[in-house]
User: Which sequence fits this backbone?
């Protein structure tokens, strides 16, 4: 199995890990950016990442469903569930009031053990919304799984965060950004 350095090298090669001067969705600036759509567009590479994540999540306990936040969690969640026998995969979508909702007949039953899978976790905002909707249904969230953990050990939940790679990504308020200070051009990679 690949180590963290090999995996970061792989992400870099396919443009899923960028170094430069970036504006994050939070408005903060960083010198690193993960664009994991560049990984999920390659099923033959994603399979190995998903297998590693599935093995980590399998150790947490018996799971009956994987729940992913749309869009980022759908493909990795599906790929992870493929490695977990009999485990279903559903996704939660943004509702008009800014929360997450289960639509399309997707359900989590009271007491059902589930994990939430997201492509990358930074502040955990969308994952927290998915945890809320699962807990409102009476489901039990055993763990959160992510391809890339960028929380630097500061995930906002009391449950395990299982990841394939874990990277502390520095970020700054624009007014305190050393890259702005150095007048490097700012990039919005997802635009
Ligand atoms: Zn900046």
Assistant:
């Amino acid at each position: 199995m690949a180590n963290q350095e090999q995996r970061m090298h792989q992400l870099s090669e396919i443009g899923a890990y960028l170094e430069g001067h970036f504006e994050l969705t939070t408005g903060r600036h960083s010198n690193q950016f993960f664009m994991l759509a560049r990984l999920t567009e390659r099923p033959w590479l994603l399979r190995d990442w998903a297998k590693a994540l599935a093995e980590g999540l399998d150790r947490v306990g018996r799971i009956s469903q994987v729940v992913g936040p749309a869009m980022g969690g759908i493909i990795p969640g599906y790929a992870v569930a493929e490695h977990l026998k009999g485990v279903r995969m559903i996704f939660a979508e943004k509702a008009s009031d800014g929360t997450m909702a289960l639509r399309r007949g997707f359900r989590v039953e009271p007491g059902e053990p589930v994990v939430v899978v997201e492509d990358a976790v930074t502040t955990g905002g969308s994952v927290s919304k998915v945890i809320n909707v699962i807990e409102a249904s009476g489901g039990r969230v055993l763990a959160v799984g992510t391809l890339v953990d960028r929380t630097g050990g500061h995930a906002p939940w009391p449950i395990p965060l299982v990841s394939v790679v874990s990277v502390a990504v520095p970020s700054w308020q624009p007014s305190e950004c050393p890259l702005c200070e150095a007048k490097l051009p700012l990039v919005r990679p997802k635009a």
Summary: The pocket of zinc ion is lined by residues 21, 29, 174, 177, 179-180, 186 (CB under 6 Å). Strands lie at 17-23, 29-34, 65-69, 88-94, 100-101, 113-121, 140-149, 161-166, 171-172.
